[in-house]
Design brief:
This protein has a domain of 25 residues. It is 83% helix and 0% strand. The protein is built from 2 helices and no strands. It is flat. It starts with a helix and ends with a helix. This is DNA-binding anti-repressor SinI.
Length: 42
């Protein structure tokens, strides 16, 4: 069970880094959400 927790923490850190990088590039969170939604629902 702790292995799953470590995996989640790793993804959380990666997600935070991604969001931080996106903000620094001027990309809106909504744009990312829309993009991901469109990728999933093709």
């Amino acid at each position: 069970m702790s292995e799953g927790k470590e995996q989640n923490t790793k993804y959380d850190i990666e997600w935070i880094q991604l969001m931080t990088e996106a903000k620094s590039l001027g990309i809106d969170i909504e744009e990312i959400r829309d993009f991901l939604h469109n990728q999933i629902h093709r």
